Amino acid sequence: MPKTVLVVDDDEKARKLYRVILERIGYNVVEASGALEGIRLAEAGQVHLIFLDIQLPEVDGRAAARILKAYAPTKHIPIIAVTALAMPGDREEVLATGIEGYLPKPVRVRELRQMVRYFLEEVKESES
């Protein structure tokens, strides 16, 4: 059964891009346009990986990551930040929230694929 990736981004075009890429390499994709919806989907479903935009309306991605990492049913799910925040120190600040991966926007398809494979294939193999 294919693994499921949750994409949380307020940009509809970005969500569509991630969906197309991820589905082509064999993953199921669920989408959320905001952090609160994303948190609910992560809690409710069998999600294996989360792509999380950092600059979101209502609740930003850093706060959403802290919530997800503090809650037992979701704390094990790897989170990859996808963000336009690319100034010195931004990466470290984002990763300090418990987020495991960081991809600057605009996202490169190859980097996205590598990140997914790393977290869903390589990490799981090393844990077995």
Write a structural description.
The protein is built from five helices and five strands, in the order E-H-E-H-E-H-E-H-E-H. It has 128 residues and is of the alpha/beta class. The protein has one domain: Response regulator (Rossmann fold, 3-Layer(aba) Sandwich). It starts with a strand and ends with a helix.
CATH superfamily: Response regulator
Main β-sheet: number of strands, strand sense, barrel status? 5 strands, parallel
Our measurement of the CA-to-CA distance between the termini, rounded to an integer number of angstroms, reads 18 Å
- By CATH, the architecture is named 3-Layer(aba) Sandwich
> What is the CATH C-level name?
Alpha Beta
Q: Helical proportion?
A: 40-55%
Note the beta-strand portion: 15-25%
- Strand order, main sheet: write it out: 2-1-3-4-5
Counting DSSP E segments of at least 2 residues, the number of strands comes to 5
Structural class of the secondary structure composition?
alpha/beta
Work out the helix count: 5
- Give the mean pLDDT: 90
Indicate the radius of gyration in whole angstroms: 13 Å
Count of distinct structural domains: 1
CATH T-level fold name: Rossmann fold
H/E element order: EHEHEHEHEH
Indicate the low-confidence ranges by residue numbers.
none
Name the shape in a single word: globular
